[in-house]
Amino acid sequence: MNKPLILVVEDDAAVRNLIATTLETHQYRFHTAPTGEAAILEAVSHNPEVILLDLGLPDMDGIEIIRKIRSWAKTPIIVISARSEDTDKIDALDAGADDYLTKPFSVEELLARLRVTFRRLNDGGAVQMAAAVFQNGAMKIDYAAGCVYLDGKELHLTPIEYKLLCLLAKNAGKVLTHTYITKEIWGTAWDNDVASLRVFMATLRKKIEPDPSNPQYIQTHIGVGYRMLKV
Are 69 and 95 in contact (CB under 8 A)? Predict the structure, then answer.
């Protein structure tokens, strides 16, 4: 059985070759694209299972590519970019990216992100829990359907936002450490994972909290982690 096809979108030849060599060594199938135009053509023509996307391309910004691909496909997109500001990460996630890896990155970290993405694809993003529905105040998680509702309206969460919310819900009332959460979400506990966790928590709160500056559902324990409050 063939491994999933990965599209690598990167204009820097050295980085592109590093990623390609890594994928080849681990027997992944892949195509490469040095520009946004080539990336969109490859995505349409070959329907990759995962896209690794640099944001700083010569012909168009990566955020635009994410929006274009999201207009017709739900293909997981992992951004790999030198842009390290939280605002850049949030913009990419809001546009439809599923994950964000900051340059410089380690080969092991890239492979870990890919493994998590493929596991999510294989299990359909399902979370196996005893109850079919989690209700907390105005928020409801329907695990069977993989949907989250707030005041009866469905929220559109990225796969990682959904997995993060389910992890907190499963442990409602408990403080989960940064290390525990990052290992559960990404399978690793790199320093970059904690930074990514902070970004994903910010985007998740924007969607579920009536007032993100005064959170009702997710409490921050500074220097420790996060806790799902029982409303």
Answer: no
CATH number of the 133-228 domain: 1.10.10.10
End-to-end Cα separation, the chain, in angstroms: 47
Summarised one tens digit per residue, pLDDT across range 58-84 is: 999 999 999 999 988 889 999 999 988
**DSSP conformation letters of 78-126:** EEEES--SHHHHHHHHHHT-SEEEESS--HHHHHHHHHHHHHHHHTTT-
pTM score, two decimals? Answer: 0.73
Bridge partners of residue 77, in order along the sequence? 51
5-122 CATH: 3.40.50.2300
Domain ranges of the chain: 5-122, 133-228
Q: What is the pLDDT of residue 194?
A: 83
Helix (H, G, I), strand (E, B) or coil at 219: strand
Burial environment of residue 168 by CB neighbours within 10 A (0 to 12, 13 to 18, 19 or more) = buried
Of the candidates 9, 18, 99, 24, the one whose C-alpha atom is nearest the C-alpha of residue 62 is: 9
**Strand-strand pairing, 147-150 and 139-142:** antiparallel
